[in-house]
Design brief:
The complex is a heterodimer. Chain A is mostly helical. Chain A has 10 helices and no strands. Helices cover 22% and strands 36% of the residues of chain B. Chain B is built from 9 helices and 21 strands. Classes of the chains: A mainly alpha, B alpha+beta.
Amino acid sequence: MHEILSPAEWEALRLSLEVALCSALFSLPWALLIAWVLSRGRFPGRSVLDAFVHLPLVLPPVAVGYVLLLLFGNRGPLGGWLHAHFGVQLAFTTAGAALATAVMSFPLMVRSIRISLESIDRGFEEAAQTLGAGPLDRFCTITLPLMLPGVIAGAVTAFAAGLGEFGAVITFAANVPGETRTIPLALYTAIQSPTGDAQALRLAILSFALGLLGLMLAEVLARGVRRKLGR
Amino acid sequence: MLKVAVLKRLGSFTLRAQFEAPTPGVVALFGRSGSGKTTTVNILAGLLAPDAGRVELNGSVLEDTATGMRIAAERRCIGYVFQEPRLFPHLSVLGNLQYGQKRAAPAAQPIELERVVALLGLKPLLRRRPHQLSGGERQRASLGRALLSQPRLLLLDEPLASLDVARREEVLPYLELLRDSLSIPMVYVSHQLDEVLRLATYVVLLEGGRVAGQGTVNEISLLPPLRSLVGPDAVGAVVDGQVTRFDGTQRMAELQVGRGKLHVSVREVTAGTRVRVHLLARDIILGLQEPKGLSVRNALQGTIVELLDDDHETVLVKVDIGAATIVLARITRSAAVELALRPGMSIWVLVKAVSTRGHAFRLSGASGDS
């Protein structure tokens, strides 16, 4: 089994999974909050927030990575503060790679959650209200279970997309073996090397398989939940 | 007493609803679609805030814009059965029933789950999901869910409108049962006259966002605005009578109506039961003398109260038949002139027995037969 991939490739796979998982888990509560605010909130500047959240979809990933570097780099305003108070360094670390991935896949997650939130008939929440459920109670017992298919689909899609994030990661977290060299970065490195053709092919196939698996998993999970809801 | 006086603007529509209805009992909000019925119940439930006004139930204020007092919908203890059942799709029927029960304020005499399940025939449905139920079953489950939240008031917004005729007949008896066996005041929204006649104890007639009339079913059935709502053929007094005798072989009941007796063909009833009959104005004949040698069996003596314009050929005559009961007769203008009918005149009211068939509904189990 171990002969299929070299130790460096196993390392890249492990890192990719770790970075994607951390980024998806970290984004989830924020994505829920933003999706809620965007779909239910009525406040000035809502369309600005909407555009801002979706910006990573249209910006060059390198630009996003660069902005993160400016903000969270060791001399950046936020990075410096985190380092001084918590001793946390994000630039050039696995955590930094996860942050860059989270920012890039955030719009995907928000979109999916928001669509499922907007498809919920508000009548169910009204019914819950007349049955004595307050706002938080309604959200936890009615809204969240009903939007679960979209939440799961969003989280898994963001995870699958996170496995392949390249531009923002390499710009913000650099290409450090064992620390930030995920599959796409390892693939890039292999292509750059004159003897890396076979390795590049293996990593490309691996990316392909992971992506496919992730998308299928998202669909299967969402379908399972939908069936439980009887839709 | 349910006291409502609210103002609400929604786009170009303005609701100005003001009524006071006795509790317990079934208050019917009756009117066309778009007359403001649903807006009114949403305000009662607290789902919609009025622009101005006051809502009071049995002496406690639910909403008063003058003092800024407002109880949130989730703390009003008002059950709401919506037009579509709105059962939570991710919960079983039992889970739905328990949702409101768990959150209910402690009641002195709580309505128990077992009682509701038995009352509404929900036992075989408890483990099922809402999408596995028929339309009628869903609406029954939704009724049960609202009841178990231990409501002080139950709002029913056209609960039968999404059902076909057969399903409607399946759910209606349950509503009658609830009215007769629980003392929860209800507000019943409908645009179907037959539902209102069967269920209501008090009627509020809404037209274009305003209250066009209110009163007991008998009072409301005499109001001119009803004509445009139900059509000229359905105009007629609705009166409640008490069964004095029931002939099982002919399925004929003798009813005490006003000071007289009425013979009505009905299904099984027992003496003492109150029965509601719709006496269509077109099926009533007026006579100056006591009728003899006619095939019509129902003759009541009364006094003319007033003559109302109906259309250019006919007039409606209001006749007091005693015991605060008034009936309506439609006769031609020429007949009214010929008989020289005028208020205060003594008159005989002839009702064709057949005309009451199909309009006789059991009102309440005074003799405990429900």
